[in-house]
Amino acid sequence: MKTTAPMQLQTDLRRHGRRVTDQRRLILEAVRGTDVHPMAEWVYRKVRRRLPRISLGTVYRNLKLLVAEGLIQELERAGFGRYDGNTTRHHHFTCQVCRHIFDLTVPVDRAFERRMASRMGLEISHHRIAFYGRCRACRAKERGRQRTRKPN
After folding, report:
1. Looking at residue 107, what DSSP letter applies?
2. Structure letter (DSSP) for residue 150
3. What pLDDT does 21 receive?
4. Which of 1, 37, 97, 134 could potentially form a cystine with 82 if both were Cys, beta carbons 3.0 to 4.6 Å apart?
5. How many CA atoms lie within 13 A of 101 on its CB side?
6. HSE of 7 in the Cβ direction (CA atoms, 13 Å)?
């Protein structure tokens, strides 16, 4: 799990002209403090442990604001908004079995953007490539199930 120093969170919020409220700080801390790419409900449950009176609506509004300010990213996956505290340009892999989303640490190919822009006459601001399949853990579980099956 990732951690972000509380002072860094406050600095990031202030740099974007936002008040540093406990709610906003804890929501940002929750998203940046994990690599599970949480949904809003997960963030709500996590923040509610420390702020029992926070509402789910407040969490949604603050997530939307944090995305708009570029402090977190929103990922659209199968109709569910997931959030990523890693705002550097990177791609994702989604396991189709367990639904876990992994950050891919391979460099983003900016030459691909330039080739596509040149070839198609476009101005490309960014791109997203999503990979799908089975993660290492799910593949290992499947291999284990295959070994324990008895032949008919």
Report:
1. P
2. P
3. 87
4. 37
5. 22
6. 0
Residue 120: per-residue pLDDT: 94
Task: Give the number of other Cβ atoms within 10 Å of residue 47's Cβ.
Answer: 24
Closest Cα to residue 27, out of 11, 15, 39?
A: 39
Calpha distance 24→67 (Å, rounded): 12
Spell out a b/e string for 96-116, using b for 16 or more CB atoms within 10 Å of the CB, else e.
eeeeebbeeeeebeeeeeeee
Structure tokens at 105: 């640490």
Contact (Cβ atoms closer than 8 angstroms) between residue 62 and residue 23: yes
Which residue matches tokens 């949480």?
38
In tens, the pLDDT along 102-118 reads: 999 888 788 888 999 99
Helices (H), the chain: 6-15, 22-32, 40-48, 56-68, 110-120, 136-148
